[in-house]
Amino acid sequence: MSHSNRERGILRYRWWTRLNHWTVAISFVLLVLSGLALFHPFFWSLTGLFGGPIMTRAWHPFIGVFMTLFFVLLAIPLFKDSLIKRYDIQWLKQINDVLSNRDERLPPVGKNNAGQKLVYWIMLGCVPILLVTGIIIWRPYFAEGMPIWLLRFSVMVHAYTAFLAIITLVIHIYSGIWVKGSIRAMVQGRVSKAWAKHHHSLWYDEVMKERKQQPAAKDDSSARPQ
Amino acid sequence: MRGDQINLQNIVARSATTEPSPQVRHGGVEEVTKLIDVSRCIGCKACQVACSEWNDLRDDVGECVGVYDNPMDLTPETWEVMRFNEYEDEQGNLEWLIRKDNCMHCEEPGCLEACPAPGAIVKYANGIVDFNSEHCIGCGYCVAGCPFDIPRISKKDEKAYKCTLCSDRVFHGLEPACVKSCPTGSIMFGTREDMHELAAARTDFLKGRGYEKAGIYDPAGVGGTHVIYVLQHADKPEIYGGLPEDPRISPMVDAWKGVTKPLMSAAIGLAALSGFFHYATKGPKEEPEDDPDEEKASEAREEDK
Amino acid sequence: MTNHWVDIRNADLILSMGGNSAEAHPVGFRWVMEAKYRNNARLISVDPRFTRTGAVADFHAEIRTGTDIMFLGGLINYLIETDQIHHEYVSNYTDAALIVREEFGFEDGLFTGFDATAGQYDKETWHYEVDEQGFARRDDTLQHPRCVYQLMRQHYSRYTLDMVETVCGTPRHKIQRVWDMIAETARTGQTMTILYALGWTQHSIGSQIIRTGAIVQLLLGNMGMLGGGVNALRGHSNIQGLTDLGLLSNLLPGYMSLAKAEEQDYRAYIEERVRQPLLPDEVSYWRHYERFHVSLMKSWFGDAATEANNWCYDWLPKLKADLYDVLHTFHRMSLGEVNGYFCQGFNPLASFPHKAKVTAALSNLKYLVVMDPLATETAEFWKDHGEYHSVNPEEIQTEVFRLPTTCFAEEDGAIVNSARWLQWHWAAAPPPGEARPDVEILGGLFHRLQYMYREEGGVFPDPILNLTWPYRRPDSPGPSELAREYNGWALQDVHDENGNLLCRAGEQLPDFGALRADGSTSCGCWIYSGAWTEEGNQMARRDNSDPYGIGMTLGWAWSWPVNRRILYNRASARPDGTPWSQDKALIWWNGSRWVGADVPDFPKQTPPSAGLGPFIMNQTGRGQLFARDRMAEGPFPEHYEPFESPIGMNPLHPDNPLAKNNPAARVFEVDRENFGTFEEFPHAATTYRLTEHFHFWTTHALLNSIMQPEKFVEIGSTLAEELGIERGDRVRVSSKRGYIDAVAVVTKRIRPLQVAGQTVHQVGIPIHWGFKGVAKKARLTNELTPFVGDANTQTPEFKSFLVRVEKL
After folding, report:
1. With contacts defined as CB-CB under 8 Å, which chain B residues touch C702?
2. A224 in a structural domain
3. What does the pLDDT read at residue B44?
4. Could you give the ipTM of this predicted complex?
5. pLDDT in tens, C387-402
6. B279 at interface of A, judged by CB pairs closer than 8 A
7. C708 to chain B, minimum CA–CA distance in Å?
8. What CATH number does residue A17 fall under?
């Protein structure tokens, strides 16, 4: 069975999207590692990855700002496909079927399923919060001028938000491992028609419909690749 | 006071550490306390100068903003300041309350709780809370953790600084520099027990002089402090340059650093573990085969070409 | 101080008035705290401002600056009229019973003998009535209408509570409260100490304010007592030493006085100063004046001083003016009458009043020599410092020499503290660069002058050529050599009146009791005799044992006179020789001699039954309620307004312009024109020092400058509101003579006063900050101050003048 759909199947993520995603992903992982290092002594040895504790403290906020920029670029085009639809609610209601791999019972979904959309919205909420609270507590540049209550509030919110984001990240990564074909989709960009039909049948139908209307443009013109 | 109070085995609490402190030594070190009797303070700032002299600190020459206070606030190079407060009671009687503001050396230090760097903040068996700059990473969490707004981060080296209670002097059996320099006996130093006894005597004296609300400031919210005040108006600590009435480690800091810290860490680990177990029990969502109908599948392949 | 620092702790009441003791003397203030906490003493602060002393005082009363005589005069009246004086003390130990000459009088603010044209008194009538033997007549019942007690009573009867409130502006209830607290110390066993400083001295009536304090203490029986006395807290660490060694223009060492121009005859000079007792058998110790004088001359001129040449009396300068004080000298300098000026350990541009006049005066010099460890403002008076000191260097021809000197920590020597203790200290660090001790610089100058006189001759070379110079290294006399010299040594064997050997030739003198008027002893400063004896350097002693537990550590350093710690301590015992109270026991008669915790200030073996008075330096042996002819403006202190008064008249004598200000004060005409009026300059100003700084020195030190970086003025919140000034605003403070700019400290601690029917606002101006050093630059405070001084000492009136405050 050949899954090499380099020239075949459906283009799910454009190169630009893939690049963005992985930039954000790598940054995010670095943020998690450096953030956790300063969060609990259990993770302190992670500071070694960054050239020591002071480097860890110094780099973390810069990585954060860097990530935010790319996150914005990533999030804007994903916006429309992340709007929650009626069938997403149904999908979520059947989360047990999802987890138990009883995919056949699930309602058809569009380009993104409700799980992916949740990741989108949670991250869209978390990143700005992390950015703002992070800037507030950022030494030596901004924290100096902040009132102490705000520092306290910000470190607390930063920690809780980061927690939520990390949990989301863990689920997100696991989902990629769990749902075969999705990592390739984000690495190489394309999915097989069968994969598309199986996991995102509404999107699949849409792609097929467009192809029939514009047989000439069959490649990158597949329905809204991102 | 014994001279051997500060060595590594006399560190009883250490920031960002999961392991317990050395336990074997016991009873050899008495807890120390600095007593600041505000009713005897003339605000001469000898303690400020002595602090700068002993600790080799030279702050910037600032400016006058219309009060006697100077430097205006604690800085990385000013570890204590006198706060001058003109207070008029309900009868219009004027008092000039002058309070020496510096690290309180809490029994339960908020800075230590907040600090993420192992061993950057330590508490010695004698009660002194000290910053170990060697381990300080300059994150400023101690600033957020402190209920008294004491630590300051230096722009020169991005490290946190505050009063050490002259731990180096105390180590050698001397009193802190501020105590040594105080001309009026407003600042005293000794064992916790002795200082509380003295503070009680001074409180009684003040009550005898008509200060009915005189009392000792040793806030229980932080487990007591190793710097205590005798106040003429212990019922109104806030009139002494904003001394907090019931200081405690902020609930926000607790919410950030308390039990939630291990809980959240565990939750993250658990989440990853759950994924693994889910994978192991339920298996992956395998990539669907191309159309099961061989014909249609090859048709599709053709189409792709 | 009549008493000493540690003794403050023995007081039951501490009156801090005319000084801000906590601010200016924080280290000595520890004893005030000890008194409060160990002796349950009360502390009263009477001050124009609520100060750092006020912060720890049990009671604070505000007062208009320069009205202390009124406040204390009112107290005298109150004590007498309510009969709260220490009767036994007053009648035995003061001159209350002595009868004053009939011609003496006081009318409309002036004592008898005033010469309005000269602005001086003929003091002939200010004297006791004496009998045929020259002794003062007395009435021990104190009923004679002309006895001192009755005259004083009459004098202060005008100082009613109403009048005090009117003049001082102190709220009535506060005056009454302070008076009541003080009156309690009239009780036997209760003592009050008075702590004062420049807040009493720096007025045109400064000396008389202190006199009033002394009268109060005599009436209460607090002089000579443990925890009593009138205690000057000196403004420099060694200013006591300066006056002791006679560095005032009219003095010789040990408070001997220079001759006046008309005193060309040696015998007459001595007779005038040898004071004979005014009551039978009294000690009147100044009658030994000639012993002190001759020993001084032997110390200065050695073998050249002989009886035949009147011990070189002719070589001493004679005064044409009463006093060649700083005001006088700078006035003459401003008139071009002075060529050169040696400025040693002084910063006159910053320290003397009316800076514009001082600048003009220095500009008239041919040369100025500044000897100082620091680059002072004076050394750069010729340089343009922009808005802080604007001059045109091209117009100033004065040649300025700067000779760097060592500072106190770089040399050995004794510093005399306020308590008259000579405490030896040792150099802590070598001097930097080319700095040399002052003695070495002056020694070099002396040798150069001597050489020139010897080689080239000149007018009147004798004193220079014959000056004794017995030092091992002539170019650099050592501190210990100078100390041995002021202690003095025997030139021949010295015997007492019974022929017993007191001291062999060549030996250090044991004390001034061994001084002789026959040329057999040499002594550089008679009151210091005993500081460096055959037993060695007494000033270096460091035994702080206190056998009686009352803070009397006679083994610590050495105190003049003869290591006595509390002056007039004979008065601490009753006339019968037993202590007034056991817990205030200081010295007592044990049946054969005087013993106790201090060196008795009394002939050791004279029994109480002899009836001698305890004030042995006075001709009466008594404390002087009546100053006789010793003060310039009268035998009883009288309130006069400051020369710049915010009310423009003296409520005591509203109709006599001569009695508005101190009638005996010396005012140069040109300076009178520079006095402002309250119409133009409505705010009463006073100057002072802050704990964080020492005069104009510590603005050169980083730490002090960090602690108090910038010039400010203190303004009461009421006045600030009127003028639209808020805390931290920049303000301009102007007087008739100049202006300064500073930051406004707006405070509740200065309250407006109701004085003679009008509201008076006081403004506080610290003296620190000039245009040199590391602190923020500023114009010198003495831009503002008036060029007039106390009538007796010519100490400038820095504490009371008029300004106008404006927001910038």
Report:
1. 58, 61
2. no
3. 96
4. 0.93
5. 999 999 999 999 999 9
6. yes
7. 6
8. 1.20.950.20
